[in-house]
Design goal:
- The chain has about 450 residues and is mainly beta.
- It has three domains: about 1-65, no CATH class; about 75-110; about 115-450, 7 Propeller (Methylamine Dehydrogenase, Chain H).
- It has helices at about 5-10, 50-70, 85-90, 95-110; strands at about 30, 35-40, 115-120, 130-135, 145-150, 155-160, 170-175, 185-190, 200-205, 210-215, 235, 240-245, 255-260, 260-265, 275, 280-285, 295-300, 300-305, 320-325, 330-335, 340-345, 350-355, 360-365, 375-380, 385-390, 395-400, 405-410, 420-430, 435-440, 445-450.
- The strands form seven sheets. It has an eight-stranded mixed sheet, with no helix packed on it. It has a four-stranded antiparallel sheet with strand order 8-9-10-11, with no helix packed on it.
- Helix 3 (about 85-90) packs antiparallel against helix 4.
- This is DCAF4 factor.
- Pfam families: Beta-prop_DCAF4.
- InterPro entries: CUL4-DDB1_E3_ligase_receptor, WD40/YVTN_repeat-like_dom_sf, WD40_repeat_dom_sf, WD40_rpt.
Length: about 450
């Protein structure tokens, strides 16, 4: 028993990062410094400093700190990839313009440096007091809608104006509406009702049942509160998991809500609602723009489409395209030409599907997820896929060849309540904005410069 150590050893022992190829023995922990195994006591023993969870957490923290140090060094994932060489090959005709642009973006992604953003607000109680949960950019990337967890429960909503990103001070303005603070938000999307991105769809839980709301974005502004319009619509629903706004004129003014075992499509002007029953919870949704078709990702792993022009009748098979993942689908993204669909699931798999053949044509490896509803971010113009894993790492892939280009560690220690939320764009702040990645984690907002 001496070879495995005594309980007294645990009192002063702080486990280092475990070796990458050390042999695992059930019930024991290997200490690389002492070159010996230590017995693990049951996890329910509160006085035991070494449990499986604590060891894994320490190992993850060691890895995160190591990557943060390496992040200061500008490295590329492809040997010999530099701007001078790329330009030379382009001038010699060895690279097409498409390949040149793609490789330049890969180079920029690997050279992004993190800088913290200072958040200002007309109300001093708004900025930096609550943890960011969700950030979602409008189409022009001029504004970021934020959902922040508050200590006493529920969520607080706000809008961040990104125009300040173009200044040397790297600051942004945050406007908050304290009226809507008691609802837990599961999903949010921008809605174009009176003009592009004029409203916001919020899906969440007030009590039981849940609540769906459509709010004017002008609620979150610096104008006189007395001049602000009220809520456009709000109705009770069963627990909502997802939402999507339709931009196709054949289903104008409609938004969809993914619920427990059903899909609800609502016309916010006429109030007409259409219900489609499903066999599983709908966790992800997106409307096509060329046709009035809604794509849905389910907890069962199924992805199916609905043509919202048809009436749902009993016995009628209204499901069109059907795809299947082996785990719950947490996010879907319809590509611009609408021939391909990207989907991620709770097994950490990210797949690109050809909708014409209903076959998976690419897989993007390295994503980590087991139970969280984590979004995908696709930038087709620059050929990049971005996703934040449950392990709090932000990963960037090449859309072209599915190569993992970069893994960005979180500035904060990994935990369930510290999973970063990100936005990526080549024009953060509008048409004259600055390119890069925005990362919201805990109470902080960071900008990864894409120059």
């Amino acid at each position: 028993s001496e070879s495995f150590g005594y309980l007294s050893d645990f009192a002063t022992f702080s486990p280092p990062c475990p070796p990458p190829h050390s042999e695992e023995l059930p019930g024991f922990y290997y200490d690389s410094e002492k070159n010996r195994y230590f017995r693990l006591l049951p996890g329910h023993n509160n006085h035991n400093p070494l449990t499986k969870d604590s060891i894994e957490h320490k190992a993850m923290e060691c890895k995160r700190l190591r990557l943060l140090e390496e992040e200061q060094k500008q490295k590329t994932t492809r040997a010999g990839l530099n701007s001078s060489l790329l330009l030379q090959k382009r001038q010699l005709g060895l690279l097409s313009s498409t390949s040149y642009c793609r490789l330049v973006h890969e180079l920029k992604v690997n050279c992004m440096q993190r800088r913290k953003i200072e958040i200002h607000s007309p109300d001093s109680s708004v900025a930096g007091t609550n943890n960011f949960k969700i950030i979602v950019a409008d189409v022009a990337c001029e504004r970021i809608f934020t959902v922040n967890d508050v200590e006493h429960g529920g969520c607080k909503y706000g809008i961040i104006n990104l125009s300040g990103l173009g200044k040397e001070s790297l600051t942004v303005e945050m406007y908050d509406n304290l009226y809507f603070t008691n609802r837990k938000v599961n999903s949010v999307c921008w809605a174009s009702l009176t003009h592009p991105d004029s409203h916001l769809c919020l899906m969440g839980i007030a009590e039981t049942p849940g609540c769906a709301s459509l709010l004017p974005a002008s609620l979150f502004s610096s104008t006189n509160p007395g001049d602000r319009p009220g809520m456009l619509c709000s109705f009770k629903i069963s627990t909502a998991w997802s939402c999507a706004w339709c931009l196709n004129p054949q289903a104008d003014n409609c938004f969809s809500t993914g619920l427990t075992r059903r899909v609800l499509v609502t016309n916010v002007v006429t109030g007409h609602r259409q219900t489609f029953g499903t066999s599983s919870d709908v966790l992800a949704q997106q409307f096509a723009t060329q046709t009035p078709v809604l794509y849905n990702g389910c907890r069962s792993g199924e992805i199916f489409s609905i043509d919202v022009r048809q009436r749902n009748r009993k016995g009628q098979s209204w499901k069109a395209t059907r795809l299947f993942h082996g785990s719950a689908v947490t996010s879907i993204h319809l590509m611009e030409a609408e021939h391909y669909l990207m989907a991620a699931d709770m097994a950490g798999k990210i797949k690109l599907w050809d909708l014409r053949t209903a076959k998976c044509v690419k897989q993007y490896k390295g994503h980590h997820n087991e139970y969280a509803l984590l979004p995908l971010h696709v930038n087709e113009e620059e050929g990049l896929l971005i996703a934040v894993g449950q392990d709090c790492y932000t990963r960037i892939w090449s859309l072209q060849d599915a190569r993992l280009l970069r893994t960005i560690p979180s500035p904060h220690p990994s935990s369930k309540d510290a999973i970063p939320s990100v936005v990526f764009s080549s024009r953060l702040g509008g048409s004259r904005g600055v390119p890069g990645l925005l990362m919201a984690v805990k109470q902080d907002l960071y900008h990864f410069s894409y120059n």
